[in-house]
Amino acid sequence: MTESPIRVGVLGARGRMGATVVKAVEGAADQELVAALDAGDDFAALEKAQVVVDFTHPDAVMDNLRWLIAHDLHAVVGTTGFSEERLAELRGLLADKPSVGVLIAPNFALGAVLAMRFAAQAAKFYASAEIIELHHNRKADAPSGTAAHTARMIAAARAEAGLAPGPDATTSEMDGARGASVEDVHVHSVRLPGLVAHEEILFGGEGETLTIRHDSLDRTSFMPGVLLGVRSVVSRPGLTVGLENVLDL
Ligand SMILES: NC(=O)c1ccc[n+]([C@@H]2O[C@H](COP(=O)([O-])OP(=O)(O)OC[C@H]3O[C@@H](n4cnc5c(N)ncnc54)[C@H](O)[C@@H]3O)[C@@H](O)[C@H]2O)c1
Ligand SMILES: O=C(O)C1=N[C@H](C(=O)O)CCC1
């Protein structure tokens, strides 16, 4: 007997990512698009869905998730802007809804997930690390969610290895010249038309450097991860942060 397709709704459907997700879901044999909504649309149409994919805006995503969780809908979230406070609120809401799953991934591209994993491995051996993230100039937030997540993974790996961040001698600097500091990792953000989504993680050691780089050249690069997220979240209650927890790495 063939299983019925997973009923999927998309929030942010007229945006760059949302429009790409709509096409990907329509092309997936095991999924059925039941709602494609954008700002101002009536969320009632989402009640036909089992899973809702959100690619909207950091200022909108928490209200969307409050609504989805209250309506017992699973969520796959690519929208960025998640602080520890936001994640704690979601864990609290999900505690009252034990069957609902929310998967938040700062980056759904396989190569980006692998780059973050490799960076965490390298961080145990190199005390000095910096991140450069490069994106299109219509991106709302900086630094990117991916870069912030990478920095946190580097910080966690350092803490586990008992390694302090490597020193540098810079004491005189123009504001912003050393980028933002995310858990003691410097993150530099570049915004240019023509770019899609790119990240370099640079490590320095005695007489050597190591650079890990990932490039998303097209938004289709995120789609296998999004579709996998939809398939996974229906049997993964609670909050999951990072596609690395879903992939068999
Ligand atoms: N996780 C990933 O792999 C990944 C990949 C690319 C982009 N992103 C993130 O996804 C988000 C969207 O990126 P984008 O480039 O598609 O932006 P975009 O501006 O092209 O699209 C966002 C869309 O969301 C709509 N929107 C805003 N508020 C809404 C609401 N309350 N309900 C429904 N729709 C609403 C907007 O009208 C717009 O059409 C950003 O946070 C971006 O960083 C994540
Ligand atoms: O285009 C964007 O915006 C992207 N946002 C995510 C981030 O902030 O890390 C992922 C890559 C593309």
Category from helices, strands and their pairing:
alpha/beta
Give the tally of structural domains: 2
Look up the CATH topology of the largest domain: Rossmann fold
Topology pattern, helix = H, strand = E? EHEEHEHEHEHEEEEHE
Hey, roughly how much beta strand do the residues contain?
25-35%
CATH architecture heading of the largest domain: 3-Layer(aba) Sandwich
Q: Helix fraction? A: 25-40%
Average predicted confidence as pLDDT: 97
Q: What is the tally of helical segments? A: 6
Enumerate the distinct ligands.
nicotinamide-adenine-dinucleotide, the ligand O=C(O)C1=N[C@H](C(=O)O)CCC1
Q: Could you give me the name of the CATH homologous superfamily of the largest domain? A: NAD(P)-binding Rossmann-like Domain
Radius of gyration: 19 Å
Strand order of the largest sheet: 2-1-3-4-5-11
Number of strands: 11
- Termini, distance in Å? 31 Å
What coarse outline follows from CA principal-axis ratios? elongated
